[in-house]
């Protein structure tokens, strides 16, 4: 079959909502003002760990301009993003579990009055010993040290152990064994837009909630649960999101409180969090300590890997069950690994909860693995790129832990990026103080399973055709700036051969749009794209026969292009799309169709098997060139090259944008960003000045090379293109630093003080706690897993 | 949204009137010019004035003039942008142009004044926090509390002097033209600071800075300012080195003044460096010795970005680089570490 | 258990009722608005004038999101009072449209992928406009320097610099 020529897909088109954002028209959540609106504020615990004995609200309630005051007792129902770890309360009931945990909420005539009211609320706290480190959390067995009462063992949230292949046997056959420890410090998303939600409880006992959220559907479910309202009476609208990166994927206290305050007062209530509060809401990158043991042959062939991760989860579960598995899931998808053992544990500590940030749980292990490979290559006297190239996973194969690899463009990514960066000429050959480093990675194109178990599709799209040829696309997906609204428009425009201007996209409104699970796990393009194509094709089944009859052309010979339905053989035999739609409506009645997408069935059958499978894996390879002043240890990133197998670039402009943004975020994490706490449990510096986010002056030029492997599962062949880019950049920085000055920093962020210590031989190696992991679940990929077929 | 608490906004017509207002209203009044230090601190409850006396638009604080006799006159109300972009400043005092141009961000420099920068409040990451945070941590002595949270045994506040322009002005032996209710007086910048994070300025509270005077004698000095910070923008200095030198044709040092910022609660003049350098031919060894002397008096504590050990270590490196740059001496970088072997 | 607090802040914060009539020239139009003296220009623009195109990310001058032009200079609207803005020419992102047509910078930022979440973009476009008004042919490094006070978390700034350069080269109508 000759390759299809696309009219929209692959073109560097503007996003459909970009101009509105540039002229100031776009209404983000905090831009919404409703008549009679009140303003809410949350009172937060000053203690990282404290029992709440009483909350006295009388004085606050009596303050002029205060309309309602809520405490934990008003919203006792627990919630949480994962059904099996419902451990959050909108307002802490018995205990505050981190400094910043919300304890009470107020609605008032203005933000200033609301704030004054907060100061009149008296809370009787009984401070408890805060648990602030992974080590303390693993060993704090005293009843009073348990952050969550349901914990059976210390403050261990989840401990897992999985074994794939003959690990002991393969280690025995290894000729060299490498053991290393690493620490990846936590960091946060820091979207420029602060969190905001507006609740409006209407006259028909219906609730509308606008929020800056990535997951309106999950928020919808949480609101129903906590507010004890039927889902049918709740409408959630995700406002355009001013940056998410994973940080707006949980249901949050301020959302539930805005809704509840509106129910109590009968007036709309807006809660906008301050920048400081955004650091407390967090859900960012877990601090992870890692131990990794890898066995290799003398020629560099990997024999076996044993990987341990220790995640500092903060005060609540959030996505933590998935996070811990993700630190172990994707080590196998890049290089052939005959045997693999993973042990991971996530603990609770009295700090803001960690959750999903771009790359969710995989940047930390990828950092460890790719640095260790660099060390292995050096020890064996090999070029680190050669070491990897000799053992890349094959397309259409199954990994040792049962993950289905369909397309894999990693080889091409590596070769292209190495050529563009002139790797061979530069590696170990640049002058002292200048270095180049390499790393590669793979990532999922959407989680294979939904957050809550159900049989329903992960994504739904509904199309409505209007007289005149207008098309409205309805979908539950939330555009967080990545361009998911535009992706829907591109897919539909491509299918129908119409102009983008004739398409209207309505998204993320639970009253209007079919469910899409949300903007997380790089799932949106693959899943909504497929659902949109399916809906288009259903409509084509109604439209094309009508055109066929009118034009006296067989359906097989018809194409939809340039606003027409026309004969391929005789292009002059054509009617306009609008006319075709009107004729079809005359024949079939009102025209609409839905499309749905389910990912391929998860073939693995063990506890924890839900994390890792995906419709298709994206692949990335990156080279970083940097210079380091050996006296001040200041690092300057000179340039980043990155090649990424995205299956197909729906819009290369948007894919490059995701690449450049991911590289930026990776460099921030690698060199300066950290979410750290004082001994008293307070966030060290919850401000945008002290949380170091790179400016234009620290941000290098980025060269992105797109590799298209046309995945059979992807819409028009597309795979993930939002998070995977971030993964290789961080270890590539560390490897480049080693190439520049000969020291390894096995700790993120790589700050000048650490480098200087390392140069003086005074940087302590990362210590990893000892811990008895549960006996492993042993599993072999056996019957029932089909090797993906080439398209 | 973080908001300002309520206050009286008073707009006097002259500096003298402003000074009188401040004297009359007492500690509940504060002067505000660009607002870039005052407003964030009011929003976080660090400053709690009931009255703001605005110096905006006072013509007597404006202007930058190089005068044949008196030297350079820089109005305290000039924005940091205007100071950094002024051609006379750039030509005579590149250190000052650079220091002013390195404060925070372009936007902030368009509002923030040089007068505000020389008296910018001392900083500490236990103090530069919201009201909520400071209350949760237990207030520190600089605002609302009794102890220093950085060093609980310290009897004085250890907040860090964080002006970029002040060390340069000290290195150039500049004077401050102050206006009080009773009239003006000129005070050397050398006498205007005190190593106490709470009371880091010696002038009376009602005295206002009208202008900065850089003496004619400093016109020939080589001058430089080097600043350590994490990012090329936004960040306050976590170390700053200002140096002003003169030498004769043979390279013998005639005068030398070295001033550090962000290593204590006041700018630190490294007298030892002047003693070492003046009268001698500047050499690599002398520079090393001056750098060591500077490092000895640099005592950063754990209240700003990056490890204080690192900041102390960098004092020597930055001083060395500042002096070598001025003296035109090439330094060999100390090289710990080495290139890994080729494969 | 809550620690006692010296209440200087509480005392000074009495519902902010001190209002005054402001006369502001915004985007070429004279606006009169009665509002609290303590309001920053950011609050006056967003809350009293409905000009929500100006965004906010920290309100203490640490991010650049709320940048507007005052007398052609980019300044942080979170750090200037409404009352201090009287007698100046204020331009917000809404004021860059001419006769319903976007400014070339707005067009370029939209068309070249420089806008992702878009939240920091109004401030960046205004800062870039001020740069180009003073220096119509800046180098890429000069653009970097001029935009170094505007944080963006989405783009890595690459396409933002590209978009400004497109306008510099006159590639955008």
Please give a handful of descriptors for the protein shown:
heterotrimer; B: about 350 residues; alpha+beta; 5-stranded antiparallel beta sheet; 4-stranded antiparallel beta sheet; 12 helices; about 20% strand; globular; C: about 170 residues; Ubiquitin-like (UB roll); DNA polymerase, domain 1; 2 domains; 5-stranded mixed beta sheet; 6 helices; about 15% strand; disordered N terminus
What composes the largest sheet of chain A? 7 strands, mixed
Low-confidence runs of chain B: none
Number of helices of chain B: 12
Work out the number of β strands of chain A.
30
CATH topology of the largest domain in chain A: Aldehyde Oxidoreductase, domain 4
Structure report:
- The complex is a heterotrimer of chains A (791), B (343) and C (173).
- By secondary structure, chain A is α+β, with helices and mostly antiparallel strands.
- Chain A has 3 domains: 35-128 and 192-243 and 248-281, Aldehyde oxidase/xanthine dehydrogenase, a/b hammerhead (Aldehyde Oxidoreductase, domain 3, Alpha-Beta Complex); 288-449 and 604-777, 2-Layer Sandwich (Aldehyde Oxidoreductase, domain 4), CATH 3.30.365.10; 450-597, Aldehyde Oxidoreductase, domain 4, CATH 3.30.365.
- The model of chain A has no long low-confidence stretch (mean pLDDT 96).
- Chain B is α+β, with helices and mostly antiparallel strands and 343 residues long.
- Chain B is built from 12 helices and 12 strands.
- In chain B, the strands form 3 sheets. A 5-stranded antiparallel sheet of chain B has the order 4-5-8-6-7. In chain B, strands 9-10-11-12 form a 4-stranded antiparallel sheet, sandwiched between helices.
- Chain B is globular, with a radius of gyration of 21 Å.
- Chain C contains 6 helices and 5 strands.
- In chain C, strand 1 (19-26) and strand 2 form a beta hairpin.
- The N and C termini of chain C lie far apart (64 Å).
- Classes of the chains: A alpha+beta (791), B alpha+beta (343), C alpha+beta (173).
């Amino acid at each position: 079959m000759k390759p299809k020529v696309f009219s929209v897909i692959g073109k560097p088109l503007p996003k459909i909502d970009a101009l509105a954002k540039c002229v100031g028209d776009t209404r983000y959540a905090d831009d919404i003002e409703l008549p009679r609106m009140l303003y809410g504020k949350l009172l937060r615990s000053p203690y990282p760990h404290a029992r709440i004995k009483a909350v006295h609200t009388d004085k606050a309630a009596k303050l002029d301009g205060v309309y309602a005051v809520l405490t934990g007792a008003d919203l006792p129902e627990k919630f949480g993003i994962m059904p099996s770890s419902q451990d959050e309360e909108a307002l802490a009931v018995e205990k505050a579990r981190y400094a910043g945990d919300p304890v009470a909420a107020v609605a008032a005539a203005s933000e200033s009055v609301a704030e004054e009211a907060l100061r009149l609320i008296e809370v009787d706290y009984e401070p408890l010993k805060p648990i602030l480190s992974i080590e303390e959390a693993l060993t704090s067995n005293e009843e009073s040290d348990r952050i969550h009462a349901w914990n059976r063992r210390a403050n261990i949230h989840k401990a897992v152990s999985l074994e794939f292949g003959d690990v002991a046997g393969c280690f025995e056959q290894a000729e060299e064994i490498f053991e290393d420890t690493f620490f990846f410090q936590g960091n946060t998303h820091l979207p420029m837009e602060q969190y905001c939600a507006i609740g409006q409880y209407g006259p028909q006992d219906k609730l509308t909630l606008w929020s800056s959220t990535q997951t309106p559907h999950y928020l919808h479910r949480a609101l129903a649960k906590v507010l004890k309202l039927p889902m049918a009476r709740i409408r959630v609208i995700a406002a355009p999101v001013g940056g998410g990166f994973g940080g707006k994927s949980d249901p949050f206290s301020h959302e539930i409180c805005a809704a509840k305050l509106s129910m109590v007062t009968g007036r709309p209530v807006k809660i906008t969090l301050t920048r400081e509060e955004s650091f407390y809401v967090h859900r960012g990158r877990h601090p992870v300590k890692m131990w990794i043991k890898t066995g290799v042959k003398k020629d560099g062939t990997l024999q076996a890997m044993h990987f341990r991760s220790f995640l500092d989860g903060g005060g609540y579960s959030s996505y933590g069950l998935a996070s811990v598995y993700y630190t172990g899931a994707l080590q196998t998808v890049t290089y052939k690994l005959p045997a693999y053992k993973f042990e991971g544990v996530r603990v609770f500590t009295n700090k803001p909860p960690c959750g999903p940030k771009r790359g969710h749980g995989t940047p930390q292990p990828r950092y460890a693995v790719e640095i260790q490979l660099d060390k292995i290559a050096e020890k064996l006297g090999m070029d680190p790129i050669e070491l990897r190239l000799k053992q890349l996973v094959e397309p259409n194969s199954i990994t040792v832990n049962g993950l289905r690899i369909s397309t894999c463009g990693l080889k091409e990514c590596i070769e292209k990026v190495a050529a563009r960066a002139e790797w061979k000429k530069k590696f170990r050959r640049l002058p002292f103080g200048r270095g180049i480093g390499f790393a590669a990675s793979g990532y999922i194109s959407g989680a294979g399973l939904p957050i809550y178990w159900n049989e329903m599709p992960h994504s739904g799209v509904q199309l409505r055709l209007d007289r005149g040829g207008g098309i409205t696309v309805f979908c539950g997906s939330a555009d967080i700036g990545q361009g998911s609204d535009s992706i829907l428009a591109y897919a539909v425009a491509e299918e129908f051969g119409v102009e983008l201007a004739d398409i209207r996209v309505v998204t993320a409104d639970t009253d209007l749009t079919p469910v899409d699970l949300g903007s997380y796990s790089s799932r949106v393009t693959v899943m909504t794209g497929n659902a949109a194509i399916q809906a288009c094709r259903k409509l084509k089944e109604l439209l094309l026969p009508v055109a066929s009859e009118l034009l006296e052309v067989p359906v097989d010979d018809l194409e939809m292009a340039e606003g027409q339905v026309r004969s391929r053989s005789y292009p002059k035999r054509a009617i306009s799309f609008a006319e075709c739609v009107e004729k079809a409506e005359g024949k079939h009645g009102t025209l609409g169709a839905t499309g749905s997408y389910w990912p391929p069935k998860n073939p693995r059958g063990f506890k924890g098997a839900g994390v890792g499978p995906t419709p298709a894996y994206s692949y990335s390879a990156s080279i970083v060139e940097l210079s380091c002043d050996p006296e001040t240890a200041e690092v300057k990133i000179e340039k980043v090259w990155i090649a990424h197998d995205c299956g197909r670039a729906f819009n290369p402009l948007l894919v490059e944008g995701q690449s450049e943004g991911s590289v930026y975020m990776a460099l921030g994490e690698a060199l300066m960003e950290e979410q750290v706490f004082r001994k008293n449990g307070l966030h060290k510096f919850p401000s945008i000045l002290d949380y170091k986010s790179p400016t234009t002056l620290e941000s290098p030029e980025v060269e992105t090379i797109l590799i298209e492997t046309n995945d059979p599962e992807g819409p028009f062949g597309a795979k993930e293109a939002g998070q995977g880019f971030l993964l290789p950049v961080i270890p590539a920085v560390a490897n480049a630093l080693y190439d520049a000055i000969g020291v390894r920093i096995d700790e993120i962020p790589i700050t000048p003080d650490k480098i200087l210590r390392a140069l003086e031989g005074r940087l302590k190696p990362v210590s990893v706690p000892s811990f008895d992991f549960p006996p492993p679940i042993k599993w072999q990929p056996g019957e029932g897993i089909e090797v993906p077929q080439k398209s | 949204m973080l908001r300002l608490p309520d206050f009286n906004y008073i707009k006097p017509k002259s500096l003298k009137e402003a000074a009188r207002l401040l004297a009359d209203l007492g500690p509940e009044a504060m002067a505000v010019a660009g607002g870039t230090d005052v407003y964030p601190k009011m929003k976080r409850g660090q400053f709690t004035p009931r009255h703001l006396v605005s110096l905006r638009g006072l013509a007597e604080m404006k202007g930058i003039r190089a005068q044949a006799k008196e030297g350079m006159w820089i109005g305290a109300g000039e924005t940091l942008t205007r100071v950094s972009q002024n051609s006379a400043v750039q030509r005579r005092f590149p250190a000052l142009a650079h220091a002013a141009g390195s404060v925070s961000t372009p936007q902030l420099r368009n509002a923030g004044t040089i007068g505000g920068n020389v008296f910018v409040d001392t900083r500490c990451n236990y103090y530069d926090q919201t009201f909520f945070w400071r209350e949760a941590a237990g207030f520190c002595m600089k605002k609302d509390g009794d102890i220093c949270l950085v060093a609980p045994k310290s009897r004085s506040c250890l907040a860090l002097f964080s002006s970029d322009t002040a060390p340069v002005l000290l290195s150039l032996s500049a004077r401050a033209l102050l206006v009080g209710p009773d009239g003006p007086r000129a005070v050397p910048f050398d006498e205007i600071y005190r190593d106490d994070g709470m009371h880091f300025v010696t002038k009376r509270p009602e005295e206002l800075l009208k202008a900065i005077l850089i003496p004619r004698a400093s016109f020939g000095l080589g001058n430089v300012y080097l600043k350590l910070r994490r990012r090329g923008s936004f960040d306050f200095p976590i170390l700053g080195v200002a140096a002003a030198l003169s030498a004769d044709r043979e390279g013998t040092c005639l005068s030398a003044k070295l001033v550090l910022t962000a290593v204590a609660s006041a700018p630190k003049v490294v007298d030892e460096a002047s003693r070492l350098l003046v009268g001698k031919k500047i050499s690599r060894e002398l520079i090393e010795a001056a750098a060591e002397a500077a490092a000895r008096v640099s005592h950063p504590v754990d209240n700003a970005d990056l490890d204080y050990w690192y900041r102390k270590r960098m004092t020597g490196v930055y001083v060395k680089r500042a002096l070598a740059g001025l003296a035109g001496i090439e330094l060999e970088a100390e090289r710990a570490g080495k290139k890994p072997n080729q494969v | 258990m809550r620690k006692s607090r010296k209440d200087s802040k509480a005392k000074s914060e009495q519902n902010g009722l001190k209002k005054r009539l402001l006369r502001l020239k915004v985007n070429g139009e004279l606006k009169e608005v009665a509002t609290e003296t303590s309001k920053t220009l950011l609050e006056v623009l967003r809350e009293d004038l409905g000009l929500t195109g100006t965004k906010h990310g920290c309100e203490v001058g640490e991010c650049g999101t709320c940048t507007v032009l005052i007398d052609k200079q980019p300044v942080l609207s979170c750090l200037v009072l409404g009352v201090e803005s009287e007698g100046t020419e204020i331009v917000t992102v809404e004021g860059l449209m001419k006769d319903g047509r976007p400014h070339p910078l707005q067009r370029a930022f939209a068309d070249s992928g420089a806008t992702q979440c878009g939240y920091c973009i109004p401030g960046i476009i205004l800062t870039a406009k001020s740069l180009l008004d003073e220096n119509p042919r800046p180098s890429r490094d000069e653009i970097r320097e001029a935009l170094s006070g505007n944080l963006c978390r989405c783009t890595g700034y690459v396409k933002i610099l590209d978009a400004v350069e497109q306008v510099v080269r006159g590639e955008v109508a």
